[in-house]
Amino acid sequence: MRNPRSRVSGFVLSLVVLGSCLAAVAARGETAGSVAGHVVGPDDRPMSGITLVLRNDITGFNASALTGRDGAFKFFNVPFNPYELHVEVQGFKTVNQQVEVRSIVVRELTIKLDIAPVTAAVSVEAEPTAVQLETDTSMSHLDIDKSYIARAPATVASRAMEQIITATPGFSKDENGRFHFQGAHSQGEYVIDGQIISDQTGATFSNSIDPGIAQSMEVIYGNVPAEFGEKIGAVINLTTKSGLGSGGVKGEAFAGGSRFGTYEGGASLGFGNDRFGLYASVNGSQSDRFLDPVNFDNLHNQGDTARGFLRLDWAPDSSDSLHFTTLAGRTNRDVPNTFTQQAAGQDQRVHTRDQNYNLGYQRVVSSEAVLDISGFARLSTFDLDSSPGDTPVQATSRRSLDNYGLNPSITWATGVHEIKVGAEVKRFPIDERFTFGITDPTLNDPSSPDYNPNLAPYDLTRGGTIFQFHGRQTGTYAAAYVQDNIRLGNFTANVGVRYDHNNLPVHDSQVEPRIGAIYFFPETRTALRMSYNRVVYTPEYENILASSSPEVAALAPPAIQQSRALGGGDLLVHSERQNAYTVGAQQAIGSKIRLDVDFWKRQSTYAGDQDQFFNTGIVFPVAFSKGDLHGWDLRLDLAPTDGLRGFLSLGHTRAIYVAPPVGGLFLDAGALDSLTSGPFIIDHDENLAAQAGMTYDFGRSGFWAGANVRYDSGLVSGAAPDDLVGDPDNSWAIPYIRTTSNTNLDPDRIKSRVVWDFSVGADLAHFHVPLTLQLDVLNAFDLRGVYNILSTFGGTHVIPPRTVAARVRYQF
Fold it and tell me: The dihedral of CA 154, 155, 156, 159: what is its sign?
């Protein structure tokens, strides 16, 4: 058993250390900037009571500020992006000024209002501006604003994070919110107000992050800056909602429901001024279809969640500020059953808990330099309980994965340079317990060609005993980086270098150049970019101790043991190393459409993945000798045009791994052909993933309607149709396999699918009613389909059927 008292004591000690460090060090803690300045009249005297609007029509960001008696204004919590600052005052010329926010250094502006011509009865409009382009960063990224998040179709809005993220081009959807991005598997991370969360947060392994806490989300997927490390296949950078500058108490309460006994509810509130801000939210949900089940009958699949969030900001003066963010959640759920497991009375349950704490201090040293510190702690647990009817194995898992760390950095802007220097240090204690015993005599039958003699001692049907493992170890991760954005007219160079060191399960170190460049052609409104990144991905830490232990090494089939490049039975998982190349372009089409396209290539050694232990939810990290990944992504955005806005995302990914496995645990002897010889297409590969969305607002009435469609050409199937004949748990899936030559480089695939979602809503504030209503119809045409079939790395899961979901929000 874990000792809760020792974990709490360690956490309290960590907070003391963090508090002490705040007085002396500085670190990366902020993921948004601010825009401030003064509004003056023609006589250069300050003008009070002037409303300014900062907006980005592509992302949907829209914020307003009012000048004080001294003409001063400030926009807080502004995500890094280009913006238009709009000022319209009766009798004065309208101002539309372009503003770039790229760092935590405050953008200081002076807005001068000029008298409109005498002939004008109203203010004179400035020239219309074209859609905003990314002209000074070679980073490929997608920005998702809270305005889109609030309307995103979902069965449970507080669990819709992954549904929203997969609108990014290049994301292939998998079961239970998992996704593959540009050939990577579980190699993404969340950054919440500067706190990096690199362990898995999806419903299968932990607790999903509520997208409702986000002011905006930035999904970085090309030329990742040097300040980000660990699992940077995709960096989901969240700027959370803040009460700073929001005025008096405002909030909302919401409730929703849908099919399968699915209900949710929650509340949030916020308030603040220029010195202090508070934002807090709580929510919970329950469902009889909590996960994507392993067949269409949805057997044994109940679950419930609860989550809370709090952010406090305090700025005692113009130079110093503090923020504290805490995020906590828990999930209790069933493990979905196959037909055989249901008949046997299997009743496995999973309980997950997480707590996240982030404390930050920022000091403005000068108008050009900012010091910042954030210290963080994350406590996460996963418990799988067995039951008397378990089949084909009886298994338990008890594991905790904690993280405690500091992130020192400094940012300053001077001339054409914008420089950031920083570091990251963290400790991550891990405690794992894993047991299993075979309860189905056909699972490891000595007469079967897939027989694994190394599992025989734990075959409970033939006199075996329970296998037991307990491991405890503390890892250390350290990194340092420097990056510089050099702006020379229409040319910008993004130059950085990072050093990473990790000691678990083996010592891995690497120097990583991150280099990119972009050139903007104003005549055609075209931005061309290219980049090279050397990156290292730390291993998956879920069950890393078990999969790296001699005891577990002895379980692998003899043929897999013999094939290991690291020697028979050596299961140590190295960090994956990649050379990543991207060439892309961004193009304005008229004043309302923006086109973004990338061509990318990734070359990996120690290419990472994970192996699932049947359908228990227990996974083990694995690695292959090499990976060859390439493809293209395309994104088309339509800014609001007469009430209509929308997007189109397309992605193509080719993911080739090269056997043999060189780390991690494989117990599946039936997968030997593809795992032990030559290159093969892994199940991250998808020819085309496409998603489009459109929303129409009916004037100022508050009513709106939207449609969303997604096409997936199909991931790799883990079984051929002939393999499923007579299988009581999987024969139903035969019609969902698209057969090919079924070779390693042309495997059978899941059949393609097209899923439509429709939404309607109403904001009744126009009628002086503080309610917002939304009705979603998901999978409107009730398409039957699957994400995967007997995948070595994921199992079998079906997509959700047609679901009608309704939500109501009360604003106060």
Answer: negative
